[in-house]
Design a protein that fits this description.
Layout: E1 3-4, H1 7-15, E2 21-26, E3 32-37, E4 40-42, E5 45-51, H2 55-62, E6 65-72, E7 78-89, H3 92-107, H4 112-119, E8 124-138
Antiparallel strand pairs: 1-8, 2-3, 2-6, 4-5, 5-8, 6-7, 7-8
Length: 142
């Protein structure tokens, strides 16, 4: 039977393994734009990086509203949907810290610094999504 996740379950689910977030932004004409992103959590915020001139970056500079879905693609299936507003930073020290953490999560500790240095460069954005609405359901097929 499907059930709502607790805040602790949501944090554990979002932090588990190498699940990606599917980020939805709004293009200039209102069309949806969805792309996967690697992320880490910082308190309540979901944090990721993107190139400032990418479609994601341009969309978020123009309209800070965003949504993500992180899902478990095997039975019994689960998902977390987060909607909110982002803040953007180009602070290189903060970028290095989070790009390194993200690199470690997705590429392993032995490559964390390599990915951190690669992504903590001028032109890259650090994006923080602050949740305003969270929907989290587990055991969808249970």
């Amino acid at each position: 039977m499907p059930r709502t996740m607790t805040p602790e379950e949501i944090r554990a689910f979002l932090s588990h393994g190498t699940r990606t977030a599917k980020l939805a932004t709004s293009a200039p004409g209102g069309q949806p734009h969805v792309m996967p992103v690697w992320f880490v959590l910082d308190g309540e915020e979901l944090v990721f990086t993107t190139w400032g001139d990418s479609v994601k970056g341009q969309n978020l500079r123009r309209d800070p509203r965003a949504a993500v879905v992180v899902d478990e693609e095997v039975a019994p299936y689960a998902f977390v949907h987060i909607r909110g507003q982002v803040t953007l930073s180009e602070d290189l020290e903060e970028l290095l810290r989070f790009a390194t953490a993200i690199g470690g999560r997705y590429m392993g500790a032995n490559r964390a610094e390599e990915f951190g240095r690669r992504n903590a460069v001028p032109g890259e954005l650090l994006v923080r999504l602050r949740p305003q609405r969270v929907i989290a359901t587990a055991d969808l097929a249970g």
